[in-house]
Amino acid sequence: MLLRMLRNDLMRKKGITAALFIFVLLAALLVSSGSRMIMELTSSIQYLFSESKTPHFVQMHSGDLDQAKVNTWAEGNAMVEQHQIVEMVNINGANLYLGAESEKNTVMDIDFVTQNQQFDYLLNLNSEIIQVRDGEIAVPVYYLQQNKLNIGDQVRINNGAFERSYTIVDFVRDAQMNPSVVHSKRFIVSPSDIEQLKQGVGEMEYLIEFRLHDPSKTSEFTQAYQNAGLPNAGPVVTYGLFQILNGMTDGIIAAVIILVSLVLILIAMLCIRFTMLATIEEDYREISVMKAIGISEKDIKRLYLVKYVFMAGLASILGYIASLGVNQLFVSNIMLYMGKAPATLLHFAVPLLAAGLIFTMVVLFCRAVLRRFRSISAVEALRTGSLGDTQIVRNRLNLSRNRWSSVPVFLGLKDVMQRVKMFRLLLFVFIVSSFIMIVPLNFLNTLQAPSFISYMGVGQSDIRIDLRHTNDVEQRYARLVNQIENDADVQKYSPLVTSQFKIRNAEGSYDNLSVESGDFSIFPLSYLSGNAPATDREIALSDANSNDLKLKTGDQLTLQVGGQDQVMTVSGIYQDVTNGGKTAKALLPYNKDSVLWYVVSLDLKDRGVMAAKIATYEKDFSPARVTDLQGYLNQTLGGTIQQLKLVTTLALAIGVFISILITSLFLQMMVAKDNNDIAVLRSIGFALSKIKLKYVVMSLVILIVGVAAGTILSNTLGPMLVSGIMSSFGASKIVFVIDPVQAYVLCPLLLAGTIIITAWISIQSIRETSISKMIVE
Predict the structure, then answer these.
(1) Which residues have CB under 8 Å from 164's CB, separation 6+?
(2) Which interval of the chain is the signal sequence (predicted)?
(3) In whole angstroms, what is the distance from residue 60 CA to residue 744 CA?
(4) I need a surface site. Which of 78, 90, 91, 292 has the fewest CB within 10 A?
(5) Alpha-carbon span 534 to 352, nearest angstrom
(6) What single string gives the DSSP state of each residue in 698-735?
C-alpha cells in the first residue's frame, strides 16, 4: 500500500517532486565534490612529499659558500638524518626562450639544476624520479600550463656569448617550488650540461637542505643552524611552509566550494520544510479523517515520510555518483601540479559519508517537521481546514490603491504584505542566491585588481625592478638608483633593500628575520593595525610574523643592529601572502654582507612609455628582473585566478538555478493554494494575463528585497568569510574591490530576468482553474 501511495503521490506532484529531487541531488553533488577535493588535495600533497622526500629545512644562499663547514657541522648534529647542498645556475629570463619569445618579463627566478641523489627528488607527471641525458631538459609544470609546452619542444639559452638548445623530455613536479606564489622554478639538465652552464652563463645559488630524524624538532634545528654562523644569505623555508604554499591555490577553491555546499544544504532544509508544510496543509482534512477513523499518528507520519526518504536517498546516491565525474573539473589543477595519490578507501568513503550526511539531515528534518501532526485535532481540522502557517495576516500594512497603480500590481503588493510569513523561504533563497553569486565575483575582481599587490607586502607602483645576488650586485644597484634618479620619465621611485637581521627569541637565543629597509611613505601599504615605521626604533611586521612571534602593535622586540642589541617597537601589522609572508619593514641601515635582494619601485609620468622603459632597464641592468605590477600579479596568482573563474561561473549558474527552482516550486504551490481565489477572479472578468502579472509582481517584490539584503551581506559577511579562508596564507583582512556594474546591475538583472520568465511559466496551471471546478470540489 505504501508503494502504491508513493507512486500516486509522485504522479500527482511531478513538478514539485522533481524540483526537490534535483535540489537535494545538487546539494549532495557539491558536498561530495568539495569533500573529495579536500581529500585529493591533502593526499596528493602527502604523496608528492613522500615520493620526493621533501627536506624539512632549507637555507637558500647566494654568494660564496664554505661547503666543508656545512658538512662538518651537519655530520656532528644528532638531529640530522641526511643533508645535501644543491647547486643551482640562475639564468636571466631575458636569455631563456621557451618558444619564439624570451622570458624577459617573468617574475620567476629561473634555476638550472641536476637531479638530486639523496632526497628532494624532482618528479615527472607519473611521479617518477626524472633522469635526463645530455641535450635534454625537464621543465616545471608551471611553464607547461602557462606556455602550453609539449614533449619535444625546444628550450634555448642565448646571452650573446653562450647559446645552447635543449629538447623537452619531461615536466617537473617540484615539492619546493611548484606553486606560482613561489617565485623560483627549477629546470633539470644533465651533469655535463650544468657544468657548461656554470662556465658560460648565469650566477651560482645554493640550497642547503636537511632531513631530520624527528621533523617535529624543525624549530629547534632552525635555531641551532642560525646560531652556528653557517651560510645564510637567503631565506629559510621549512616543511610546514612547503605544505601551506602547495595547498594555497586549491585550498582556497575547496574552501569556497564547501562554503557554497553548506549554503545549499541550508536552503534544501528550508525548501523541504516549506514543501512538507504546504503538503500537510493541502491534505489537512484527509489527515484529520485518518485520525478520526483510528489510524495511528505513527502510521500517518510514515505515509508522508516514505516519500522524502525515497527521494533523499536516491538523490544523495545520484549526487555522489555525479560527483565522481564532476570532480575532475575541480581537481585537474591538483593532478597537474601534485599528481594523483594512490586511491584509498577514504577517497570514496568520505564523499559518500558527506552525501549520506545530506540524506540523514533531510530525514531528520522531515521527522522534526512531521511533529506538527501532534497538534492536529480531527474536529478542529474538519472545521477550519487549515494548519495555520500560511493564513493571511490582517492589517499588516494599510496599502491603498490609487489611480496610478494597476489592479494586478496592487493585488500583488497587497498579497505580499498580508502573507509575509509565507514568503520567508522565497526571500531567504533570493538573499542566498545573490550572496553566492556576488561574493565569488567580488573575490575574483579583488584578486585581479592592481590594489591586491598590497596584500603581497608590496606598494602599488608602475614598475618593479628586482636585483638578485651577483658578484657586482652592489655596484649595479648603485648605478640603477642613479639612473632612475636622473630619468626624466620617472615621477617617483623607492629603493628598498631586504637583508637578514638577528631577532632575540623567548629562549634568549637569536633567529633570523628578513627586514626590508627604505622609505615606505612613497608607495605605502594598507596596514591591519598601526602604520609604517617612522623612526629607526620602530618596525612593522607581516601578519604571519606577528602571529608567529605573538606580537601586536605597540609591543617590543630586540634586534641585533650593527652587532648591538636594539629594542624596537612594533609600529604596525601588514599583510603578505607571498612565500609564506614572513617579512618585516624598518628604517635601519643594512649590512651589505647579509643582503638578500634589492628592489626599486617606480612610477612613470607617462605610462605609454612603460614597455620601452622595461626593455631599457632589462638591457642596462641585466640580469635584473623588471616587471609591471599587473604582470607581477598575473604570474603570481594566475593559477588561483583561473580556478576562481571556474568557481565563479559555477556560483553564478547555481545562484540562477536555485532561484529558478525555488520560484517555480513556490509559485506552483501558491497557485494550488490560491485555486479558489483565482477561480473567483476569473469569474468576475479578470484576464489570465492580469492574474499572471499579479504573481510576477509578488516574485519581483521579494526579489528586490532579497537582492538588496544579499548585496549588503555580500559586502559585510562576504569579506569576513574570505578573510577567514585567506588568513592561513598571510592575509586576514580582505577588502573587496567591487565592480558596481557587475555586482549591482548585471547580477540583479540576470536574476530578475530569470525570475520573470520562471514566474510566467510556473503559473500556467491557472488556465485550468474555473468557478465550476471549485463548486464541484
Answers:
(1) 156, 157, 158, 193, 196, 197, 200
(2) none
(3) 48
(4) 78
(5) 56
(6) HHHHHHHHHHHHHHHHHHHHHHHHHHHHHGGGT-----
Contact assessment for residue 218 and residue 239, using Cβ atoms and an 8 Å cutoff: yes
Residue positions counted in the chain: 777
Compute the distance between CA of residue 105 and CA of residue 635 in angstroms, rounded to an integer.
10
Burial of 309 per CB tally in 10 Å (0-12, 13-18, 19+):
middle
**Cell numbers linked to 525:** 601599504
Peptide bond preceding 623 in cis form (omega within 30 of 0): yes
Q: Which helix (H) or strand (E) holds 230?
A: none
756 CB neighbour count, 10 Å cutoff: 15
Q: Which amino acid is at 16?
A: I
Q: Using DSSP bridges, classify how beta strands 584-586 and 510-518 pair: parallel, antiparallel or unpaired.
A: parallel
Look up residue 271 and give its three cell numbers.
525548501
CA separation, residue 279 to residues 9, 12, 359 (Å): 10, 12, 20
Using left for φ > 0, alpha for ψ between -120 and 50, and beta otherwise, residue 538 falls in beta
C-alpha cell at 561: 643592529
Question: What does the pLDDT read at residue 401?
Answer: 47
pLDDT value of position 533: 92
Give residue 81's pLDDT.
93
Among residues 85, 15, 160, the alpha carbon closest in space to that of 623 is found at 160
Encoded amino acid at 88, one letter: M
Sign of the C-alpha dihedral computed for residues 648, 653, 657 and 663 taken in this order? positive
Sign of CA dihedral 453, 456, 459, 462: negative
Task: Please name the residue that has the C-alpha cell 497538534.
Answer: 375
Phi–psi pair at 446, nearest 5 degrees: -65, -45
* pLDDT confidence of residue 403: 42
Tell me if 518 sits within 8 A of 457, measured CB to CB: no
Alpha-carbon distance of 67 to 410, in angstroms, equals 86
753: how many CB neighbours lie within 10 A of its CB? Answer: 11
Q: What span, in angstroms and rounded, lies between the C-alpha atoms of 81 and 306? A: 61
Distances (CA, A) of 402 to 399, 405, 698: 10, 6, 18
pLDDT tens-place string over residues 505-562: 777 777 778 888 988 888 888 888 899 899 989 999 988 888 888 899 999 999 888 7
Which residues sit opposite 167 in a β-bridge? 136, 154
What's 486-534 look like in SS3? CCCCEEEEEEEEEEEEEEECCCCCEEEEEEEEECCCCCCCCEEEECCCC
Residue 537 Cα distances to 495, 521, 533, 564, 566, angstroms: 20, 16, 8, 13, 8
Rounded distance, CA 184 to CA 177, Å? Answer: 6
d(CA 693, CA 386) in angstroms, rounded, equals 27
Q: What is the pLDDT of residues 560-580, one digit of tens each?
A: 887 788 999 999 998 887 655
Short-list 116, 127, 140, CA closest to 206: 116
Q: Which three cell numbers stand for residue 395?
A: 492589517
Task: Say how many CA atoms lie within 13 Å of 331 toward its Cβ.
Answer: 26
Q: Rounded CA gap, 443 and 718, in Å?
A: 9
- Looking from the CA of 659 toward its CB, the CA atoms found within 13 Å total 35
Helix (H) or strand (E) holding 313: helix 297-338
2 near 303, Cβ under 8 Å? yes
- Alpha-carbon gap, residue 733 to 739, rounded angstroms: 19
Return d(Cα 493, Cα 602) in angstroms, integer. Answer: 4
State the Cα–Cα distance between residues 448 and 643, nearest whole angstrom.
Answer: 13
Q: How many CB atoms lie within 10 A of CB 196?
A: 16
In angstroms, rounded to a whole number, what is the distance separating the alpha carbons of residues 520 and 577? Answer: 19
Give me 25's grid cell.
541531488
Instruction: Please name the residues in contact with 363: beta carbons below 8 A apart, sequence gap of 6 or more.
Output: 305, 308, 309, 312
User: Could you tell me which of 116, 121, 114 has the C-alpha nearest to residue 136?
Assistant: 114
Stretches where the chain sits below pLDDT 50 are: 378-405, 770-777
